[in-house]
Write a structure and sequence with these properties.
Layout: E1 8-9, E2 12-13, E3 35-38, E4 45-46, H1 49-55, E5 71-75, E6 81-83, H2 84-88, H3 109-112
Antiparallel strand pairs: 1-2, 3-4, 3-5, 5-6
């Protein structure tokens, strides 16, 4: 799959390697892969960690718990922005349009958000493509 040239949802740019207008990307593109994450380091939305790693010119930073009230998740179906707290408590469903989110994304929270166990990215925890 080739990335689209530009991807915008409700006027918000999606960076990285999106392949459609619902935030799916070359790495994650199932029916449920419809969120983008605003990266703390650059305040830009990317479909996934790998998109940021491959296209940004800087290292990523995780959101600290003290900032979990910040809007940092974008529903690719309706464009609703959720705070990290709202997203984590959403039961993998957009509260505005009821679109289902991929429950497997929780396995990668440590790449985006400060977590209890404080895991950092390693070969074992880095996301793999699902192609």
């Amino acid at each position: 799959m080739l990335p689209v040239v530009t991807s915008k949802i409700n006027g918000i740019n999606i960076f990285g390697k999106p392949i459609d207008q619902q935030t799916r990307c070359v790495h994650w593109h199932s029916k449920l892969d419809v969120i983008a994450i605003k990266f703390k380091c650059c305040e830009k939305y990317y479909p996934c960690f790998s998109c940021h790693e491959e296209t940004a010119d800087h290292k990523s930073e995780v959101w600290p718990k003290a900032e979990f009230d910040q809007k940092a998740i974008l529903c690719g179906v309706c464009g609703n922005e959720l705070s990290i707290i709202e997203y984590m408590g959403s039961n993998n469903t957009c509260p505005k349009c009821q679109a289902a989110f991929n429950p497997g994304c929780s396995k990668h929270y440590h790449l985006y958000f400060e977590t209890e166990d404080g895991r950092q990215k390693t070969e074992e925890t880095a996301p793999r493509t699902n192609n």
